[in-house]
Design brief:
Distance between the termini: 73 Å
Number of helices: 6
Order of helices and strands: HHHHHEEH
Strand content: under 5%
Largest sheet: 2 strands, antiparallel
Strand order of the largest sheet: 1-2
């Protein structure tokens, strides 16, 4: 063992060249040299994660069959202060634009987030911009609540 270590210690360039050749061989297996695309792909979909005979998989497949897709796209605003008035207004504008896209089913953002507060033993649920969600819902859609009532019910 001492002889091997002494030989390696006396030939550092040999070790560096062998390491480089090993890494180059590994890269040829991981990357298609003609296209530059990786050969190693990561499939993080639920389809690949759940066993086919799992009850959760059966439920997932049923939900996907009923509602179509489970695709989610996340748009992130990276800033030092996302809660500044300018950034909240930007998020509000982007949210409205995303909601106008026909194929978008739902948009969740700081503009649609709730700020739940208790006042005089009643729940007050305005959004973060201060306008009550129910009023905005009625204005935008000109609807009454599904139960025909004018005020939201809080779950018990």
């Amino acid at each position: 063992m001492q002889r091997i270590l002494a030989t390696l210690n006396n030939r550092p360039w040999t070790i560096l060249i062998a390491t480089f050749l090993f890494c180059a061989a590994a890269v040829t297996q991981l990357v298609d040299l003609e296209t530059g695309r990786p050969r190693l792909l990561l499939d993080s979909s639920v389809d690949s994660l759940l066993p086919h005979d799992d009850p959760a998989r059966e439920f997932y497949d049923e939900v996907k069959r009923l509602f179509g897709t489970d695709d989610t796209i996340m748009v992130v605003l990276a800033d030092d202060d996302v809660f500044s008035p300018e950034n909240l207004e930007r998020v509000k504008r982007l949210t409205k634009r995303f909601e106008e896209i026909e194929s978008v089913e739902r948009v969740s953002s700081l503009a649609t987030a709730l700020s739940i507060k208790s006042e005089n033993d009643e729940l007050n649920i305005p959004d973060l911009h201060g306008q009550p969600r129910l009023e905005r819902w009625r204005r935008d859609r000109n609807h009454r609540l599904p139960n025909g009532d004018d005020r939201p019910r809080t779950p018990r």
